[in-house]
Amino acid sequence: MYLPLIGTTAKPKSVLKAGKNWAEVATTETGASVRSVRVDESVLKAKLRQVKITGSRNKTNKFYSLTLSIPPSTDPATKFSEIASDFVTNMFSLDETTTFYPYQAKNRDKKKAIKSTDDMPKSAGGWNPYFERMFPLKKEGAKIYTGMVIGHDEDTDDLKDGITWWTMSNDHYFKEKEVQAEKVVDCVWFAYSRSVKLGTSKLYRLANQATGL
After folding, report:
1. Predicted pLDDT at 209
2. Does 15 share its domain with 95?
3. How high is the mean pLDDT in each 10-residue block of the chain (213 residues)?
4. Please, are residues 66 and 172 in contact by the beta-carbon 8 Å criterion?
5. Is residue 67 domain-shared with residue 149, that is, in the same domain?
6. Do residue 112 and residue 171 come from a single domain?
7. Backbone angles phi, psi at 11, to 5 degrees
8. Less crowded by CB within 10 Å, the N or C end of the chain?
9. Predicted model pTM
């Protein structure tokens, strides 16, 4: 029998030693039976990868976090579309080479990138591929915590500083994502016996010894 998961810690500084996908964790001083720590190597690599887009016209391509405050409206989808259009238009005014790519890599061959205001979707649904998410859209208003993949030639900090007046004036938020990847997934799991009383710090130290993280 296993206790419920009490905590996980992932530090993507390195992956398991070559040829090792599983590491056994055991200690005689506590009388613990042998259990395992699983580190998903592919997820660790995904957390560290840089954004590479074939055929990009820009010096820089990055994932950005975007919070959009949608005010109360009888048609929240249309209101979202208006705010998205306003954001993109302002970004083009800061860097005319700005490019908005479909958020998911699998859609980048199906949907063309937005490279000018003429390319902007005409309907709310047309924006969906370019955002990490577009929900919840509520008539009473809501905050949409989403993301975009944006290519640009201007320095990242200059771009963020330039759009700050727009975000602050409209209660929005824009920043570079700390992890440059489509998704962030917890990638370390601990399993241990009910008879063993190990604190979180002890488990973490044992995992470090076994995995080299």
Report:
1. 58
2. no
3. 46 47 41 47 50 88 96 96 97 97 94 97 94 94 96 96 96 94 61 50 55 53
4. yes
5. yes
6. yes
7. -125, 95
8. N
9. 0.65
φ, ψ of residue 88 to 5 degrees: the values are -65, -40
Q: Can you tell me the distance from the alpha carbon of 174 to that of 166, in angstroms, rounded to the nearest whole number? A: 10
Domain count, the chain: 2
Q: What is the per-residue pLDDT for 185?
A: 56
Could you tell me if residue 54 is inside a domain? no
The boundaries of the domain holding residue 213 are: 1-49+185-213
Please indicate, yes or no, if residue 111 is contained in any of the structural domains.
Answer: yes
Give the Cα separation of 198 and 116 in Å (integer).
57
Two tokens at 186?
Answer: 């917890």
Helix (H, G, I), strand (E, B) or coil at 184: coil
End-to-end, the C-alpha distance of the chain in Å comes to 28
Structure tokens at 88: 């993109």
**Are residue 86 and residue 157 in the same domain, yes or no?**
yes
